[in-house]
Design a protein that fits this description.
Number of strands of chain B: 42
Number of helices of chain A: 11
CATH superfamily of the largest domain in chain B: Bira Bifunctional Protein, Domain 2
Radius of gyration of chain B: 42 Å
Structural class of chain A: alpha+beta
Radius of gyration of chain A: 43 Å
Shape of chain A: rod-shaped
Distance between the termini of chain B: 93 Å
Strand content of chain A: 15-25%
CATH class of the largest domain in chain B: Alpha Beta
Strand content of chain B: 25-35%
Order of helices and strands of chain A: HHHHHEEHEHEEHEEEEHEHH
Largest interface: A-B, 92 and 100 residues
Shape of chain B: elongated
Helix content of chain A: 25-40%
Largest sheet of chain B: 7 strands, mixed
Number of strands of chain A: 10
Oligomer: heterodimer
Largest sheet of chain A: 8 strands, mixed
Number of helices of chain B: 20
Helix content of chain B: 25-40%
Distance between the termini of chain A: 93 Å
Number of domains of chain B: 6
Strand order of the largest sheet of chain B: 30-33-34-38-37-36-35
CATH topology of the largest domain in chain B: BirA Bifunctional Protein, domain 2
CATH topology of the largest domain in chain A: BirA Bifunctional Protein, domain 2
Chain lengths: ~350, ~800
């Protein structure tokens, strides 16, 4: 017989079988038939030992070549089959990618909180800390120490909420302003003092532009040199930073507050563009806050000497600032807790007012 | 406080326009509330003369007028029946806005039945001056063509309304306004000095003040033989212009002086006075009288009564009585000019609810220096208007002392305002306001006028100087930045609040802000008993300080659902009140959401108490609470579902949070439908982090080089045993090696007897110094089994 011819025939047969294998099991069967322990190629190779050296010289390389080629063909076929199987599997796993994912709710931060955080950033940059105090106050902190002595007519302007009298006859009030925290701070901290005090305040008044609870932010500076020029400077710097404007037109008008002397109200210029107000410049004035030099009686009431220590204070509405900056038209909505309003006027929790990335 | 421009000009000689006066008022601290200037809406209209009025060629009812106007001779078509040659009319140019008819004339001449009309002749109604549509205005008198219509119509007096701050009773008189405006440079203060009127006979009415604190001085006099009746036209017009109703001449005089000089007076019908008049304490029911407001009052002993020997005649400084009031029949009048204490007047006003012009002035403190001039001024006016013969003036008590002098270092102006003013200017301003300045040194002595009782100390004078000089001239100076390194200013509590808010918002909750007060019945649902009720709530639904934000949050949740919101979630981080003391207020982060039927194409589960627990734990973790050291117990308070709620504690006592399903009965009482889960987190209860070390560097990370081994266990335990008990026991079995124990299955049913359950755990065993042998791992597993059995009585499930 001619060995090499037989090998060629065998190769053709096995190659055809490999190519015809429809799956990995059939391919494995071909491999065992050819190259398994008792495979046809293996048996032929086992026969090499019985051959003459001349025959072996021809048949050895021929069989080895056959084995290599079959292995390569098997590997190639295997890969092709795997690829086809994967393609088939993937084809079966097709999804409608337009279906909605599992819902995840996203909430929001209330505009009052946002504005308070913006205030903290702006004033922190000027060296102010944020102070806090209780909502239920005594007469001393809310009135008397602030130079509203008992019977003072200015007490009438405060629309005060009173608590039911205590057993001892004393009567607490809901703070009508954040100013009691001025007193608490001056009585406990040695000047220099720079604080802002955001918080809830209460007045017995409820109509389109008043709610019985609202938010104020108080500012207080006490040292040995702070004067009205600084007061104007701080507030103008604040307006520029908060309303994010280079143009700051303000007007300080004399006014009366029991706890400041001299006292002033500050107006800011604005212009109207349709429904929205542009704060900073313009021909119209908008009253925005009350302020003044801390009254010497107040400084004295806190145990400090008004000839040594001086300074200024101001107070303004946080809700109002939010309305002006962010265009919410109705104060009452701030406390109505309609999720549509909260989602629209609220802020992303990922937004954190700061100097590097901006206020909002 | 209202006044008219012409009234002001009796006290202020000025060429300033209305706008300039309003501006000067604003900058001097007299805050304008409203300026009504009839001339403004009439500015476009002027007097015109109809040279000829002839019939329209094409229309019977129209006339064509040739009119001499400010803009030259015009042809104007007019439909008024009274248009006639030679009349003076009011001319509206093309393009003018007609305030009464609310339309604007075409800017171009318009053809009316073929004749071009170059403007309009106006009726009173078209100008907004009345209802007279019958014809065009036919001006009486002689007016040059081009005269402003406001002037020709006599409609020109502007009314200014401004806010009187509580410290400035002198602004409750027009003269006081004029004084400040003059000082501010808006004109010259020309109020004439009051000349006394000599009395012809002794005052027949005896006066005494029996309560000097309430009424330190009471002056009066009688004028006999007066003829009372309606006051003259000029006086009625003046009072009406500022919204006062004329009564009769005697009463109108007192109202005039009250608004002109801020000096309240009272006039009594002398015939109704029995014996002496005295100011004294009220005597309750015995003093019952009918006041001029038609209501009865019985003044108690805290109130100052003016009485004669027979009856109470009025409440001193607040309101007079009906009985002794002046009528048209009055022929003798007793005029009272007294000074009533501001605090007592205010208390009486508040107690009686009477808001009168007298109260408004006395409670702010009227000028004690004008007690007698006020009486003399009234005498003069009454004599002028009603005739009669005045008695001598009688004065009981003593006029309160003028305010004390102030030692004023002029440097105070610079110290407090930064203004560097020459001494002369400071002196000029104070002098113009009526202060006296004496002394030549750095510290001058300032005497305070009797009408400026608000000025007590240096700062008050600084305000006067700065106010009149102009706040706008104070230079703004940025606050110098503190020296040195900038440190963060937020407190740990503030940072905690920020973190909690952000965590909850990220978890789907919208931040709400709800009222700090709620209804007592609602508060009671959440444990409130007493001590936080408001004395004067704004409504019965907001009458107590809330013990928790829950009532409002839950109701808001329902309101949102009622509006159609699919799955509203709300939280609030705000106050809750335990007592009315400063430390009785705590901060609470509360959140609520509804339990809704799950709907998702890929399958879903309904929210349950473990979602609320996860929210609470997430909030606590955000706030820096040691979440690995917390314990949970089914011991939440009564407003939670008894079986589906828990309390999260640190150690045995410190409660950090409650969570779970709200009690269905509580929800029902609040009108909330369905089930609701929620949580309350108490940020203040989280222990403060230890004081920060000098360095922010963290300790070195310890990582094991060896693979952790995971082993599963299932324990059968009694129902009463909690997952926490089993996990704790397993974790404690070999602390050095057991890194974590996680529960992954709870099974009840076949294979587990009734009343028991199977809890499946995975323990993570983490060696640090070598790979564990099987025997070593088995030893740890045995320890776990033994520990759980010992602690819980559970058995390993076979």
């Amino acid at each position: 017989m001619s060995g090499t011819e037989d090998i060629r025939a065998l190769e053709a047969e096995l190659s055809a079988a490999i190519a015809a294998a429809a799956d990995e099991a059939a391919l494995e069967a071909v491999r065992v038939e050819a190259l398994g322990k008792k495979g046809r190629v293996s048996l032929l190779m086992r026969g090499l030992g019985a051959m003459s050296p001349e025959e072996r010289q021809t048949m050895g390389p021929a069989l080895n070549g056959l084995k290599d080629r079959l292995n390569a063909a098997l590997a190639e076929r295997k890969q092709a089959l795997e690829q086809a199987a994967l393609s088939a599997a993937l084809a079966a796993e097709r999804a409608d990618v337009t279906l909605p994912p599992r819902p995840e709710a996203m909430g929001s931060i209330h505009p009052v909180t946002q504005v308070m955080e913006e205030l903290a950033v702006i004033f922190s940059d000027m060296g102010f800390t944020v102070a806090e105090g209780p909502d239920i106050e005594d007469d001393f902190h809310n009135f008397t120490a602030l130079n509203f002595p008992p019977g003072h007519p200015a007490r009438d302007t405060q629309d005060t909420f009173f608590m039911q009298p205590r057993a001892d006859g004393s009567q607490m009030v809901l703070r009508t302003h954040t100013s009691p925290v001025q007193i608490r701070t001056m009585m406990s901290v040695k000047p220099p003092i720079r604080i802002i005090v955001p918080g809830r305040v209460y007045r017995c008044d409820w109509d389109q532009t008043h709610t019985p609870m609202f938010h104020q932010v108080e500012g207080l500076v006490i040292d040995r040199a702070a004067h009205m020029g600084h007061l104007k400077g701080v507030l103008m710097d604040f307006i520029a930073a908060f309303f994010e404007t280079d143009e700051v037109r303000v007007r300080f008008r004399p006014h009366y507050f029991p706890f400041t002397e001299p006292s002033a109200e500050m107006d800011v210029g604005y212009s109207r563009d349709g429904e929205t107000l542009k704060i900073g410049a313009g021909d119209s004035w908008l009253e925005i806050l009350g302020c003044g030099m801390v009254h010497p009686n107040v400084i004295r009431n806190c145990g400090l000497d008004p000839d040594v220590y001086q300074g200024f204070a101001w107070g303004m509405g946080v809700d109002r600032l939010a309305m002006l900056k962010y265009g919410a038209p109705d104060l009452r909505d701030f406390f109505a807790n309609d999720v549509r309003w909260l989602a629209h006027y609220g802020f992303s929790p990922l937004l954190q007012a700061n100097l590097a990335t901006g206020l909002s | 406080m209202k006044f008219t421009l012409s009234w002001l000009k009796e006290h202020l000689k000025t060429s300033a326009t209305l706008a300039e006066i309003a501006d000067a008022m604003t900058m001097a601290g007299l805050e304008i509330e409203h300026v009504e200037n009839p001339a403004d809406s009439l500015a476009a209209f002027t007097v015109a003369k109809v040279i000829e009025a002839r019939p329209h060629p094409d229309a019977d009812k129209l006339r064509v007028c040739t009119v001499d106007t400010r803009d030259g001779i015009k042809e104007i078509v007019c439909g008024a029946p009274n248009a006639r040659s030679g009349m003076l009319a009011v001319y509206a140019p093309l393009g003018a806005y007609m305030p009464g008819a609310d339309f604007t004339l075409d800017a171009k001449p318009r053809k009316i039945r073929g004749v071009e009309s170059h403007g309009m002749l106006c009726s009173a109604a078209e100008l907004g001056l009345g209802d007279d549509h019958d014809g065009i205005i036919d001006l009486a008198g002689e007016w040059p063509v081009g005269t402003p219509a406001a002037q020709a119509l006599g409609a020109g007096d502007a009314v200014i309304d401004f806010e009187v701050t509580p410290n400035r009773p002198d602004w409750l008189g027009v003269a006081g306004v004029a004084r400040d405006l003059a000082a501010a440079g808006a004109g010259e203060y020309v109020t004439p000095k009051v000349e006394p009127v000599k009395g012809n006979f002794p005052c027949p009415v005896a006066i005494s003040t029996d309560w000097a604190e309430a009424c330190p001085v009471f002056a009066g006099r009688v004028i006999r033989g007066v003829r009372n009746g309606p006051s003259p036209d000029w006086l009625q017009k003046r009072l009406k212009a500022i919204g006062l109703r004329p009564i009769n001449a005697l009463v109108d005089v007192t109202n005039l002086i009250s608004h002109d000089r801020g000096r309240p007076l009272h006039v009594y019908d002398a015939a109704k006075i029995t014996g002496a008049i005295r100011a004294r304490r009220g005597d309750g029911a015995a003093d019952r009288f009918e006041a001029l407001d038609g209501r009865e009052y019985a003044p108690d002993e805290s109130m100052c009564v003016i009485a004669d020997d027979a009856r109470a005649l009025g409440l001193g400084g607040v309101m007079g009585g009906e009985y002794s009031g002046c009528t048209d029949a009055t022929t003798g009048v007793f005029i009272e000019s007294a000074w009533f204490d501001p605090v007592i007047t205010r208390a009486t006003g508040k107690a009686t609810g009477i808001e009168s012009d007298a109260r408004r002035r006395f409670e702010r403190g009227v000028d004690p220096g004008f007690v007698l001039p006020g009486l003399e001024l009234a005498t003069r006016l009454i004599l002028d208007l009603c005739g009669g013969e005045p008695s001598e003036v009688r004065v009981a008590g003593a006029i309160p002392a003028p305010p004390a002098d102030i030692a004023f270092p002029v440097s105070e102006v610079k110290r407090l305002t930064g203004l560097n003013l020459p001494r002369a200017e400071i002196v000029n301003i104070l002098t113009a306001l009526g202060f006296g300045v004496s002394g030549a040194g750095d510290v001058v002595t300032v005497s305070v006028p009797s009408w400026r009782r608000d000025c007590e100390q240096k700062a008050d004078l600084v305000e006067e100087v700065a106010r009149i000089h102009g706040y706008d001239r104070i230079r703004a100076v940025s606050l110098p930045r503190p020296k040195g390194r900038r440190t963060p200013t937020a407190t740990p509590g503030q940072n905690r609040a920020r973190a909690i808010r952000r965590m909850l918002a990220l978890r789907g909750y919208h931040e709400a802000v709800t009222w700090s007060f709620c209804e007592t019945a609602e508060a009671a649902l959440f444990g409130y008993t007493q001590g936080l009720a408001l004395a004067n709530p704004i409504s019965s639904e907001l009458d107590v300080m809330r013990p928790t934000p829950f009532p409002h949050l839950l109701k808001a949740l329902q309101e949102n659902a009622d509006r159609g919101a699919a799955d509203p979630r709300l939280f609030e981080l705000g106050p809750a009140y335990m007592t009315d003391a400063p430390d009785g207020q705590i901060s609470v982060a509360a959140g609520v959401r509804r339990v809704l039927a799950p709907r998702h194409w890929a399958g879903a589960r309904a929210a349950d108490l473990f979602d609320a627990k996860a929210d609470a734990l997430a909030a606590l973790a955000a706030a820096g609470a040691p979440v690995d050291s917390l314990s949970v117990a089914a011991e939440a308070r009564g407003w939670w579902h008894p079986g589906r709620s828990g309390v999260i504690r640190l150690g045995p006592k410190t409660v950090l949070a409650e969570f779970g399903e709200l009690h269905p009965a509580v929800l029902k009482k609040l009108g909330v439908e369905g089930r609701v889960i929620g949580f309350e987190v108490y940020p203040d209860a989280i222990p403060q982090p230890k004081r920060k070390a000098e360095t922010k560097a963290r300790p070195a990370l310890v990582r094991s080089a060896f693979m952790p081994v995971r082993r599963d266990f299932a324990f059968v335990v009694d129902e009463a045993v909690t997952a926490q008990d089993v996990i704790r026991a397993a974790k404690g079995a070999e602390r050095a090696l057991i890194a974590d124990v996680a529960l992954f299955d709870v099974y009840r049913g076949k294979g587990v007897v009734e009343g028991r359950k199977s809890l499946a755990l995975e323990a993570v065993i983490q060696p640090f110094d070598k790979t564990l042998t099987d025997a070593e791992i088995d030893a740890v597993a045995k320890k776990i089994v033994a520990a759980v059995e010992k602690a819980t009585g559970g058995t390993l499930r076979g």
